[in-house]
Write a structure and sequence with these properties.
globular, Pnp Oxidase, Chain A, two-stranded antiparallel ribbon, 196 residues, 45% strand, eight-stranded antiparallel sheet, mainly beta
Length: 196
């Protein structure tokens, strides 16, 4: 196979979508148009210029034998798939994901309570880890790709830097959970697969 510079890929555009991982949610099995959110999912908005990091990982343990100075095979001890991104938009979805709680409007104490326009987010001393479903879309022109993680949880959160000269950012690491024997799947219309 000859070298082909046309096969070098970038990801100049993309979107991250999330949804609660409930029994009624159906993760997308189609590539999508690169613009429309999958049914039941919400977009997280701008991501910082570092983009999104997708990390599939497998840990193995060597199996050694008396007859060989090198392992004769490797056994899988664990597998994981993580998605890391630093979100730049301060909106309902990103802040609830980052803080791990939901905004609730404070009601007035009048005989007929009405919303005050002030919202409160309670940070629990024993946080409830919620499952979510994640879709990452990216494209380079007409070449589109989509990574779907049906079940996931946030495993790590970065610090928020409050600054006069730099916008607030919400750094999240999301880890895939087992979903019927899979961590997730990737869809693409790229012509990288040889057809018979």
């Amino acid at each position: 196979m000859a070298n082909d510079a046309k096969k070098i890929r970038f990801a100049p555009n993309g979107t991250i979508y999330v949804a609660p991982a409930t029994g009624s949610l159906v993760p997308p099995v189609v590539l999508g148009d690169g613009v429309t959110a999958p049914t039941g999912y919400r977009a997280l908005g701008y991501v910082d210029e570092g983009g999104v990091t997708l990390t599939p990982a497998i840990e193995t343990q060597p199996v050694n034998a008396w007859q060989s100075a090198v392992p004769v095979l490797y056994n899988v001890t664990s597998a994981s798939f993580s998605v890391k991104a630093t979100l730049q938009e301060t909106n309902e979805v990103t802040t609830e994901l980052f803080w791990g709680a939901e905004w609730v409007e404070i009601m007035s104490t009048d005989p007929t309570p009405v919303g005050t326009g002030v919202f409160r987010l309670d940070l629990a001393s024993t946080p409830d880890l919620k499952e979510l479903s994640l879709v990452v879309d990216w494209n380079q022109g007409a070449v589109r790709s989509r990574c779907v993680i049906p079940r996931a949880m946030i495993s790590d959160r970065g610090a928020i830097q409050l600054s006069r000269t730099e916008n607030g950012k919400y750094e999240l690491t999301i880890e895939a959970l087992d979903s019927a024997g899979k961590l997730g799947y990737v869809l693409t219309n790229d012509d990288i697969v040889a057809t018979p």
